[in-house]
Design brief:
GO molecular function: hydrolase activity
GO biological process, one term: lipid catabolic process
Structural class: alpha/beta
Organism: Papilio xuthus (Asian swallowtail butterfly)
InterPro entries: AB_hydrolase_1, AB_hydrolase_fold
Oligomer: single chain
Domain AB hydrolase-1: 2-118
Number of strands: 6
Helix content: 40-55%
Strand order of the largest sheet: 1-2-5-6
Length: 320
């Protein structure tokens, strides 16, 4: 499962060196899911994502509770298997923690979750991301005033500008990668070469709800992995509580391998340590030795087969 504003493309953008193709080449049956709102997941029985704001009333909670459970059930139905091995990147791990805590019966349908750059707690992120998070209440009010419900959509003007400008030699790399991506994700020039910029932006970003971004900001500001905070009045209607309930991570009993990087500015070493303490069944806890390992290297690094894939296959082979 992919990360925020990403899609299943993330597992194949490096061609034969991508994780999905590497797994398939070794005989694994590979399924790549998409969360609602990205370019592959915009259909609805009666809502139009382009005109109906109600379509965008979701965050990572709905991804985990509804979307991920449906994906897992579909795979098990088609294959006839009883369990799956799962791999998530970034938000693609958050949703498994939501699922395991809110629908605990699904813990038994997952043999193993390999969590790449896991996101759950965000209280140790640094600027510029922390600056945006601190400003998120004001940003949320402005978005509601401007009626903005989708951010960085695949067909949006801003994404179109990125796709045309960022591949521009030298200035595009300096502005988009050195100036935007690396300050948020961590820098690693060796693994994100200029010739990859066009491919990267052709497939990312591809759409996310404003509510999803605000939910993550709430998790960071409140220092709690909890349901969406609607404010006291609506919280009472939704949860019968004045504050949103925390997700019970102790109920996430599936086996989990946590893989993280020292240079990852989104999934920080400190926040992954908090997650490890909260989860009851962490079977591997691996700090990738590569000193420059950032958030993107886990899915789109140039030499992933050298510094990442061995740890993935170790987990898979030890938990067949």
């Amino acid at each position: 499962m992919h990360g925020i504003s990403d899609s299943s493309d993330t597992w194949i953008t490096r061609g034969n060196n991508s994780l999905a193709l590497t797994l398939a080449g070794k005989g694994y049956d590979v399924w790549a899911g998409n969360c609602r709102g990205n370019k592959y997941s915009r259909k609805h029985i009666y809502l139009d994502p382009n005109t109906d704001n109600a379509f965008w009333d979701f965050s990572f909670h709905e991804f985990g509770y509804y979307d991920l459970s449906a994906i897992i059930d579909t795979i098990l139905h088609i294959t006839g298997d009883e369990k799956i091995n799962a791999i998530g990147h970034s938000q693609g791990n958050t949703i498994f923690y939501v699922l395991g805590s809110t629908r605990p019966e699904y813990n038994n349908k997952i043999n193993l979750l390999i969590a790449l750059a896991p996101i759950c707690f965000l209280q140790n992120v640094q600027p510029p991301l922390s600056t945006l998070i601190n400003a998120s209440p004001a940003i949320d009010r402005l978005a509601k005033f401007l009626n903005i419900v989708e951010v960085l959509g695949d067909k949006s003007l801003i994404v179109n500008i990125l796709r045309n400008f960022c591949p521009t030699p030298i200035i595009g790399y300096k502005t988009c990668i050195l100036g935007i991506i690396f300050p948020i994700a961590g820098d690693d020039i060796e693994e994100f070469e200029p010739s990859f910029v066009r491919t990267f932006f052709n497939h990312f970003p591809v759409g996310v709800s404003e509510k999803d971004l605000i939910h993550y900001a709430q998790v960071s500001l409140r220092r709690k992995f909890a349901n969406y905070d609607y404010g006291t009045e609506v919280n009472l209607q939704m949860y019968n509580l004045t504050e949103p309930p925390e997700y019970n991570l102790n109920a996430v009993t599936m086996k989990i391998s946590l893989l993280y990087g020292v240079n990852d500015k989104l999934s920080t070493v400190e926040d992954v340590a908090i997650l490890r303490r909260k989860l009851p069944n962490v079977i591997k806890y691996v700090l990738i030795p590569r000193k420059k390992m950032n958030h993107i290297d886990f899915v789109e690094g140039l030499h992933m087969e050298e510094y990442l894939f061995p740890y993935i296959f170790d987990s898979l082979n030890e938990n067949n």
